[in-house]
Amino acid sequence: MSEVVEAAGGLAAARSDEVLTRYAGAVLGTYGTPQRVLVRGEGALLWDAEGRRYVDLLGGIATSVLGHAHPLLTAAVTSQLATLGHVSNFFATPVQVALAERLLQVLRAPEGSGVFFCNSGAEANEAAFKMARRTGRPRVISALGAFHGRTMGALSLTANPAYREPFEPLVPGVERVPFGDVDALAAAVGRDPGAVAAVVLEPVQGEGGVVPAPDGYLAAARQITADAGALLVLDEVQSGIARSGAWFAHQLHTPGQPGLGLPDGVLPDVVTTAKGLGGGIPIGAAVALGERAASLLGAGQHGTTYGGNPVSCAAGLAVLHAVERDGLLAAATGVGAALRARVDELVAGGGHPLLAGLRGVGALQALVLARPLAKEFARHALEAGFVVNAVTPGAVRLAPPLVITAEQVAEFTAALPELLERTEPSRALGRTA
Ligand SMILES: Cc1ncc(COP(=O)(O)O)c(C=O)c1O
């Protein structure tokens, strides 16, 4: 590979400052200035161009489920590419069918269900939006704090005005309700239930700050949408594919208890997924559960060239296989428990005044800060060799590869008091750490 990069511009072994200078001259500035130039990864470790080592607690934003350079994923992708890389949707491939069947299995899909493959989370939500439109009903309800992607349809469902307003007018018909408020959802749907095509929700709002739906909320949303004859679309782009400790967060359910998820046997109409599904290879999917949802997009009504690409589907199969083979559902739960134990201990012991707690499920967590210093915390963490993300001003997202070791998690939690102290010196606040 370095031969190709070298031939294209001599950057294969370049230092960070040269790469960043040339980045600024060649790549559009939509993502701001990159924080580091990364050149290699292994498991939950990353190295930059100067050879500095980082523990990856972000996993490419909740994506690299199997970490970096995972042998099974690498083998699946390279062997598929060496056999058959792309053919278009005029043809079927065994690997695409196998992944669709496996996804339907883990979603406990009934007869008549079906998968639409695409390339990203936003595209998966575009497909779901088009399904909603095909009901013939004009209203679509999403939540405040929601993030569903940046393409025009997905953006219309997204809440953040700073993302939306520069691109208005967006797709009409979308209304927003406060996340987690059953009465507000019931009232909004109730204003004209027959006109509601779909309610679109994240079981855990990721970009909104890692905010899990309150217990019973999704179940109530299922009841409200069913009564109105509307679709319930769950966006599991961030929370799905083992991250929550279940295959999908809406499956987190203990019988007899009002939990985050839906009771056994109760399903949404559409689930969207991407990110973790490819473990680092681009793929997304909108899964229509049951005959009604599956009938909404007919022949010729939606499509994309790369949808169901054999290499992406091989990646998806490798991820799902490794999750099962290597017990990564339990691993995700374990990561969350280890983080919680340490944060609870810190907070209970008087901890650091900046640390208010931990919020999330499984390996999708946020350190909740008492003041809006998440960016500063993330900068100090990076300097100390930990990749995290300031998801909101007051929340630091932790979404590591599920293969992260207990020692690597412990390395971070051991550094936590010092990172908090560097972010906001407690002496300066007149308090003791
Ligand atoms: C819940 C959710 N939906 C959709 C998206 C958009 O996915 P993508 O960036 O792959 O388009 C994201 C990305 O962060 C997400 O978290």
Description:
With 433 residues, this protein is of the alpha/beta class. The chain has 2 domains: 35-64 and 327-423, Alpha-Beta Complex (Aspartate Aminotransferase, domain 1); 73-325, Type I PLP-dependent aspartate aminotransferase-like (Major domain) (Aspartate Aminotransferase, domain 2, 3-Layer(aba) Sandwich). 37% of the residues lie in helices and 17% in strands. The protein has 15 helices and 17 strands. The protein has helices spanning 2-9, 16-26, 59-62, 71-83, 94-106, 121-133, 152-157, 161-164, 182-190, 217-228, 291-294, 310-325, 328-348, 374-383, 406-423, and strands at 38-42, 45-48, 53-56, 114-118, 139-143, 174-177, 196-201, 204-205, 211-212, 231-235, 270-273, 284-288, 355-361, 364-369, 386-387, 389-392, 395-398. Strands 4-12-11-10-7-5-6 form a 7-stranded mixed sheet, sandwiched between helices. A 4-stranded mixed sheet has the order 1-2-3-15. Strand 2 (45-48) and strand 3 (53-56) form a beta hairpin. Helix 13 (328-348) packs parallel to helix 15 (406-423). The chain is globular and about 55 Å long. The termini are far apart. Bound molecules: pyridoxal-5'-phosphate. Pyridoxal-5'-phosphate (PLP) binds next to helix 6.
